[in-house]
Amino acid sequence: MKIVACVKRVPTTEAIAKPTSDGQGLDPAGWQYMLSFYDELALEEALKTKEKFGGDVTVVTLGPSEASKEVRECLARGADNGVILKEADPSTRDPRSTAKALAAKIRALGAELVFTGRVATDRDHAAVGPMLATYLGWACVSEVFALELTETGGTAKRETEHGVESVSFSLPAVITCNKGLNEPRRASLKGIMGAKAKPIAEEQPEGVPNQVIVKKVELPPARKAGRIIGEGAAAVPALITALRNEAQVL
User: Fold this and answer.
1) Is 188 left (phi over 0), alpha (psi -120 to 50) or beta?
2) If both were cysteines, with which of 10, 56, 150, 162 could 122 make a disulfide (CB 3.0 to 4.6 Å apart)?
3) Inter-residue contact 45 to 147 (CB < 8 Å)
């Protein structure tokens, strides 16, 4: 079975967001990077599927050449091949453009099953996975926390605001992975050493125009300084008055 795990290089949670001087994006100066958390779940599920049915796992990312660090980490955990669709600043692409570029490569790879994270932890769109399935013309189940696969399809469970849905599907399919699906493995020393010999291809992605254009990026207004109303039960009337008249939440 040919399996693809789509992953993304994202800033670490310690990164401080600061708009660029022209207000068209975020200044990445000083940022450190990591593999998006939900993409770790996607990689793990891809590896588990390979172990069950055989085949190979290719990791595909759209990003700069520096993303080879994160791709190499995926190879160390057990993926067989890596592909970087070179984009110096992937944030310049909207989800549709990203999905269409990924779909072109996945189609060329002859994949039968694709795993993605339910959302990237930097931009939080949760759109690329379903759009990717649309461009491929495949089945899609999003935000999956439990999965049973066969060689021709499977059953997935996903949480909704109305409860848990159980969805049956046929391959080929795109699965977006949510918390609870698995526990990502860590790379062994053998895996780290072996990853050095595994190939990472760097290719130019398909050029796709954006439908979304960023007009301006700015920080939210600073919060007003807090104040202490009083202490103990005697402060309750003043607190209620402030919540009603100032905060207007009562």
Assistant:
1) beta
2) 10
3) yes
* 165: confidence class by pLDDT, cuts 50, 70, 90: very high
pTM of the model: 0.86
Is 142 exposed, middle or buried (CB count within 10 Å of its CB: 0-12, 13-18, 19+)?
buried
Instruction: Classify 86 as helix, strand or coil.
Output: strand
**What is the per-residue pLDDT across 144-153, written as a single tens digit (0 to 9) for each?**
999 999 999 9
Give me the residue spans of the domains in the chain: 2-203, 220-250
Rg (CA), the chain: 22
DSSP assignment string, 137-165:
T-EEEEEEEEEEE-SSEEEEEEEETTEEE
Contact at 8 Å (CB) between 57 and 45? Answer: no
The CA-based dihedral angle spanning residues 127, 137, 40, 44, taken in that order and rounded to the nearest 10 degrees: 160
Q: What is the pLDDT confidence band of residue 5, given thresholds at 50, 70 and 90?
A: very high
List the structure tokens of 101.
């570029």
Give residue 34's pLDDT band: very low, low, confident or very high (50, 70, 90).
Answer: very high
All residues at 6 or more sequence positions from 130 whose CB lies less than 8 Å from its CB, including other chains: 140, 142, 174, 176
Give CA–CA dist 139/129, Å, rounded.
Answer: 11
Beta bridge partners of 159: 164
Biggest CA-to-CA distance, the chain:
71
Please name the residue that has the structure tokens 């172990």: 51
CATH homologous superfamily for 2-203?
Answer: HUPs (3.40.50.620)
